[in-house]
Design brief:
This protein is of the alpha/beta class and about 190 residues long. The chain is about 45% helix and about 10% strand. The chain has one domain: Alpha/Beta hydrolase fold, catalytic domain (Rossmann fold), CATH 3.40.50.1820. It has a three-stranded parallel beta sheet. Strands 2-4 form a two-stranded antiparallel sheet. It starts with 19 loop residues before the first helix and ends with a helix.
Length: about 190
């Protein structure tokens, strides 16, 4: 979807933004779940960066991602097994998982996302595809599958940061602040 600014279109009842930083502050949290908080988001971000390089000869200054996670084959699980998986995975309040209406709406989405990740096949390249540095974040209780995978796709430096928490470690304000400050520090190097 495109960005919808306050005071326009579907947001016409909201007050207009007072400055550009307010707009950016609204966009960044909306992007985080898409490109950071899901295994699917990491793959989308990587393929987007690769497509930008191949089609437009452009690469991001720095690539931030999650490690590849162990994704269960949700399509083979019953609704009760998916519910149990969600409870063990963490991050989703139990009362939402226990709500049959909400759960029945979420399961097709989860299964579709899991199927996309499971069907994604990417062979290790013979040479680096990207050149920028890559920083990976993951929760201390996350089910990390492949810690070294990013080193195969870039000629840049790859580093990692384990933050306290599970798959939803970004919900912790301290972790969000750490990542924000780290990203700012990395990108400031390019400005200088």
């Amino acid at each position: 979807h495109s960005v919808r600014l306050a005071g326009r279109e579907t947001r016409s009842q909201e007050l207009f933004a007072s400055d550009i930083y307010q707009i950016v502050d609204e966009i960044v949290p909306a992007l985080l779940p898409v490109v950071q908080d899901k295994a699917l988001g990491s793959y989308i971000a990587f393929l987007t960066a690769l497509s930008l390089k191949e089609k437009y000869k452009m690469e991001p200054l720095h690539f931030f991602s999650k490690f590849r996670l162990q994704i269960p084959e949700l399509n083979k699980l019953s609704e009760e097994q998916v519910r149990h998986h969600l409870l063990n995975f963490g991050g989703t309040p139990k009362h939402l998982i226990d709500d049959q209406d909400i759960l029945s709406q979420c399961i097709p989405i989860l299964k579709a996302d899991a199927a996309i990740v499971k069907n994604f096949v990417f062979d290790t390249p013979s040479e680096a595809l990207l050149s920028q540095d890559i920083t990976c974040f993951f929760g201390s209780e996350d089910m990390v599958k492949d810690i070294k995978g990013w080193e195969d796709i870039t000629s840049g430096k790859v580093d990692s940061h384990m933050l306290p928490g599970d798959h939803f470690y970004l919900l912790e304000p301290e972790n969000g602040n750490f990542i924000k400050n780290y990203r700012t520090k990395c990108l400031e190097v390019w400005v200088i």
